[in-house]
Amino acid sequence: MSTEKKSGYKSTLKSEDTEEFIDIYFYRPIGYQWALFFQKRGITPNQVTIASIFIGVAAGICFYFTDFWINLLGVFLLIWANSYDSADGQLARMTNQKSAMGRILDGACGDFWFVAIYLAIVFRLWPEWSYWILILAAVAGYSHSKQASMADYFRNIHLLFLNGKKGSELDNSKDLEKKYKEINGKEQPFIKFFEYMYLNYTRGQEKWTPQMQKLFQVINSGYEGDPPDWFRKNYRKKSLPFIKYTNMLSFNLRAIVLFISVLINLPWIYFVFELTVMNGMLLYMMRKYERLARKFRVALEMDEE
């Protein structure tokens, strides 16, 4: 890994390991300019995230209509919303304003966008498809949530072993549960609610990765949460080829398919793509990472002996 000091927008990246081509050359440079703009005006990362939610929901509403130009406006708005979603994290790293609430809001941001998008497509196709489109959208939406959740999880595990705890946003359900119980629901009902949702989100990630949880148990019990350098180096090497799947399961690929399907007035194609191609990639990625976790757990146990 290069030790060269990064400047400009590259200094605001979590890691070039986990950045996609479109992000590096489009969204991150744009997000960086937005971050500089917001920094000068004292706008916080959470305020940027909230703005991106409204813009993304407006994009979703545009996809209800069959007019090409309104749909094209929706494409523009969703790209704008995603540039803000990039900017909020970059701004947080530039100004050291990272927070648990920011992490929760950032995670919920895309959910708001795509709930609006899914509902818009359902209402758009309802006259022709009736309740069948609702069923298709519901199953595709559930699949989408799992795809994005697991991609986020494996990406943050990669960052944890690459950069340590400060370079990753990985959380565990035990710590989150303790924090959740400490929050006074009467005084902070919204924070309590969001923490509850985030706790369940994290529990879901852990439930789907039993081998990874066993690996963490070995690291925490045998190495006090800090694995040896040989482990970090080799995990990065083995994980790096699969990072592309965490990227494809995030935003850019699904957005391209969404834009095309909506603009050619066949939005149902997007749901079918979610259920076939994206779920196929999800299963492949999870199998590879679980095998990787089992392999490294055995290596660590032998190292302890």
Topology:
Blueprint: H1 21-40, H2 45-62, H3 68-95, H4 100-129, H5 131-163, H6 173-182, H7 189-207, H8 210-223, H9 229-239, H10 243-248, H11 252-263, H12 268-304
Helix pairs in contact: 1-3, 2-3, 2-4, 4-5, 5-12, 6-7, 8-12, 9-12, 11-12
In short:
By secondary structure, this protein is mainly alpha-helical. It has twelve helices and no strands.
Describe this structure in words.
This protein has 305 residues and is mainly α. The protein is built from twelve helices and no strands. The two termini are 30 Å apart. The longest helix has 37 residues, at 268-304.
Number of helices: 12
Main sheet: strands, sense, barrel: none
Rg estimate, integer Å: 20 Å
Helix content: over 70%
Write a concise keyword list for the protein shown above:
305 residues, mainly alpha, 12 helices
